[in-house]
Amino acid sequence: MNKPIWIKHAAQLATLASNVDGPRSKTAMSDLIIIEDGSVWIESGVIKAVGTTDELGNTYRNVIDSAEIIDASNSLVTPGLVDPHTHVVYGGSREREFEMRLQGSTYIDIMNKGGGIHATTNMTREATEQELIQQAIARLDSFLEHGVTTIEGKSGYGLNLETELKQLKVIKELQQMHSIDLVATFMGAHAVPKEFKGREEEYVDHIIYDMLPAIAQSNLAQFIDVFCEKGVFTFEQSKRIIEAGKHYGLIPKIHADEIVNTKGAELAAEVGAISAEHLLKTSNQGIKKMAEAGTIACLLPATALYLREQSAQGRKMIDHGVPVAISTDCNPGSSPTTSMPLVMNLACINMRLTPAEALTAATYNAACAINQQHKVGSLEAGKQADIVLWKVKNYQELQYLFGVNHVKAVWKKGVKVVDR
Ligand SMILES: N=CN[C@@H](CCC(=O)O)C(=O)O
Ligand SMILES: [Zn+2]
């Protein structure tokens, strides 16, 4: 059996401990439940106790000699970060489109001309499972280096049953091969594939009647997501797909109001989605509906930055009672980053979240957005020992010294997986 681990003398141990089951909203997002001179006792990959160094020193005094001791003096300790929205499994890359957008093309122009999601779909269809795994592992390694220990991953670059299943199978294999935990989302409704051009309703039927039963039977996905957007899937089409997904036991998420307001936030609230994503163009009414329904706003400030768009109204959403989570949106087109620390910085700078709110949005609320809050997202007895030791002395400094990777060490299920 592995030795117990005692992390002690943390300048700040941000526990994010919660006595509520669901996501945090309003002022609860600011309360990190910090322990100064904090410490954590870990056994067999699980957190056994959290408290001050004195308290745990006393509790475990008879077995301290058997433990590996980590001195976290002058450092911040937090839960492992959680990224609740990624498109991490894909073939190829699209750096030429980055250049094109800087020269004036828009994201939707490029997509309508066969680039964007369609280009990645071609490259993902052509790639073997092994190639997809190799490319995704490099991204997962980078996530881990940036303090991320759990992520969501979507299909959606197959747009036919065979390749959608291939992507989901790769996600399952990555879960077995890599220290990062992954949860999977079926997103066959990411775009209408070129072979269905002009026959959009037929593709919607194909998703509902052919793909969904097979996806459900494969047991490879927990969530369903739809790109509800002008020129992609309409409000009505998105609703049909989501309702069908719910029928098969998948939990809905919606890419909503990213480029144009199509009442995606209202739809997310109406269908009981666990989260709505992007929300750059969401109206006050959409915010109100999400607050009433308790829909988590999964905001992606790196995507807004990369597309040179105004960020979502994170500040307003929190003030109006919407629980907010944040994510990289890691994908080859609109946000090819794996840096959740950068996303936290941008959440502060461009959406006016406070440093504490940004940390809640990247840990506990992010875990809620993928229904993993019972296992991860906070430092509490009984949870997985997914822990980050940062080279900063408090949570404000983590957001203040921006654009830098402050990770010093990461433990996943009690095993040190990063040491910098
Ligand atoms: N907006 C839709 N889907 C992705 C982008 C996918 C791509 O461009 O390949 C997103 O969430 O940003
Ligand atoms: Zn996305």
Give a quick set of tags describing it.
binds zinc ion, alpha/beta, 420 residues
Q: How much is the radius of gyration in Å?
A: 21 Å
Structural class: alpha/beta
Assembly category? single chain
SS elements, strand count: 16
Broad shape: globular
Largest sheet: 8 strands, mixed
Bound molecules: N-(iminomethyl)-L-glutamic acid, zinc ion
**Average pLDDT value?**
97
Could you name the ranges where pLDDT drops below 50 across 5 or more consecutive residues? none
Strand content: 15-25%
Provide the helix percentage: 25-40%
Kindly, what is the distance between the CA atoms of the first and last residues, rounded to a whole number of angstroms?
26 Å
InterPro entries: Amidohydro-rel, HutI, Metal-dep_hydrolase_composite, Metal_Hydrolase
Pfam families: Amidohydro_1 (PF01979)
Pathway: Amino-acid degradation; L-histidine degradation into L-glutamate; N-formimidoyl-L-glutamate from L-histidine: step 3/3
Subcellular location: Cytoplasm
